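Hi support team,

I submitted a single chain yesterday and got back a structure, but I'm not sure I'm reading the token output correctly. Could someone confirm the output below corresponds to the sequence I sent? I've pasted both exactly as they appear in my results page.

Thanks,
R.
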Amino acid sequence: MNGPAAAARLIDLATSLEIPVMAVDAETLGIIGASDPALRILGLERRDIGEVPASWLSFLDGATLSEVRSFSREARDDSRSRLRFAATGTFRDSLRIRMTFLRAPDFLPEGTLAVGFDPDSACQSADRDSERLAEREIETSARIQRTLLAGSYTFAAPGVSLSAETIPSLKVDGDFYDFFELGKGRVDFLIGDVMGKGVPAALTAAALKAAVAKAIIREVVAHGEDVDPVRVLAEADRAISPGLIEMGRFLTLYYCRLSVSEGILRFIDAGHTSFLYYDSRRQRCWQAKGSNMPVGFADGQLFRSYALPFHKDDLFLFYSDGITEAESADGSLFSTARLMQLLAAHGDLPPEELVKKTLSLVFFFSSGGFRDDATLLAAKITGDTPEPARRYESGIDRGDENLLAGVRERFVSDLAAAWPGEDDSVSTEFSVAILESLGNVIRHTEGEARIDWEINPRRITVGLEFEGKEYDWFERKEPVIEDYPEHGFGSWLISRSTESVLVLRGKDDANRIVITRGRA
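Hi R., thanks for writing in. Yes, this is the structure output for that exact sequence:
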């Protein structure tokens, strides 16, 4: 999308996220569109848009206004996509206001500039010379970042499109990512964050990436195409954790594998922030997280992996805490909730456009700069995934005494039809997992709940949706049989009979439990 419609979409989203940003004509500096927070700062009404000439800049002194106009002319002629300029002036009743002008044709039409406002930052910042020095430092650091850790990258493999970008705050940072295409519709990727900033953090990130690449090569030599993410990360951990422990440093990361041919994302979460999953079929956005400790916390960590099935047009968004913890002028955080809102509204975008739009909005939300290193990685499924041989979905009637028996009967029937000749123990074991999970939902939650499953020739996936506060449903603690406990068998039995159990968090205390098991 481009032209006026693109500008309008940006303004609408900025208004919903309470970000003060405007779109102005690069030739006249007249206002094309403005979010409600920007209008409040300027004291304008929405009806003034399109009729207010560049006189809205009259609070700037002559020299600064001349610099703004000079930048505007430069922006029209320069081909760079992220050309920036900051200006500060005295506004109503001696209020100091800082503006950031951005040429961003990736989300605004040609000949248009975006303007972000920070009415408080000018009082806290140095003079314009130091601001310009900071801008030059950011640009230099960004070039170093791109050289060391691939600052901006777009990658396509059969059935999946990926895009990532990392932006340092002021100096070289330790945010990182990498991609490894392994064939057969499989792509492995990393995204992570090293504790601290500067050259030591960047070198630590580079060391981790090198250790992972070396581990993958060894896996290929030893096992051919059977590259196990758990073994890869365990070997990389053994290579660098002793040094990290000695230095008192650590890093967080996701190691993920997208397999379009299987319709599954397998991931290992080593203490990183959650990631977001947009389910295109249900048009729902979910927050997902694993349970491992960061790399460098302990020697010889045993990593646990999770599985999340997906379909064509689904989208995953991974990020560092520099995104969700970006602060506005009033100290509020961009937050995971805002990021989920953005993804729910724009889950149809290509990954590259989604990454650029998100970074631009966070940039303006934080008044023209990132206080911490910021990284985004988006992956969109573009190819067909396995079609289920059996699919089921139903609401849960909590008062139905025959509910559990009915669910078990239907599941056993569907599995027998989808997996003819399969050992009966699979049906028995997985039925236990379903009924135990469903029983927990009925006993411990209230409100509407649903159950669904898909069984394709290679995998069973069961989903349970309900409302409730965050809770560790599946703490795996093996019961002591000799003590004849009344409770405690459920989670243990579920863990024994399934490949992965994952709890997704949605909006307004919505939850989705995803239980999977592959065919031997």
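A quick pointer for reading it: The first strand starts at residue 21 and ends at 25. Let us know if anything else looks off.

Best,
Support desk
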